[in-house]
Amino acid sequence: xxLKVCGLTExxxxxxxxxxxTDFLGFIFHKKSSRYVLNHLSLDEILKINHSGKxxxxxxxxxDKLIEIAEKADLNxxxxxxxxxxxxxxxxxKKLNPKIRIIKVIRIGNxxxxxxxxxxxxxxxxxxxxxFDTDSKxxxxxxxxxxxxxxxxxxxxxxxxxxGGISLENIGNIELLNQKPFALDINSRxxxxxxxxxxxxxxxxxxxxxxxxxxxxxx
Length: 219
Hints:
single chain; 219 residues; alpha/beta; TIM Barrel; eight-stranded parallel β-barrel; 6 helices; globular
């Protein structure tokens, strides 16, 4: 199982996570987020981070602005965390560098199984990965967990990231999932403050669940 650490803002922590073979590094480009990366790092600094799992997280961003950021920061993945529809994603696919993969977030709240399945099925022709997160007005980063059992009631036709309040205390519940996540996406439960990661706590998680082969670092 691979690991994504999201909401990164500090270069020294990023380098430490790279040395731990962290698979995906998440940078939030949503101005309303307390982890908005451009308040801490420039696009040029992100560009120079030597890693092939750089994920840019966007919420209802302007298409051309998104593409500009992806190019200037040399992103490898785009995570769409807002209300982006298929028309937007299709246009993004046309203009985006084809080497960049797209992750679409499915926010889970009070919707029925049927509604959730329809939402998933609508995405399939335009994206590469799904990401399941707890629904919130803040578009994630709340530290709250949705009922993971719902994932056993639906068909998940793509590899998926599991997000939303993952912690050392609840990580064992992943064993109850019929289809295991492609990757875990951790954020606020592994912080000392917004964007300030508790690297020692992340190491404990890595020791428990990350395969030593699960690295995406460039040679």
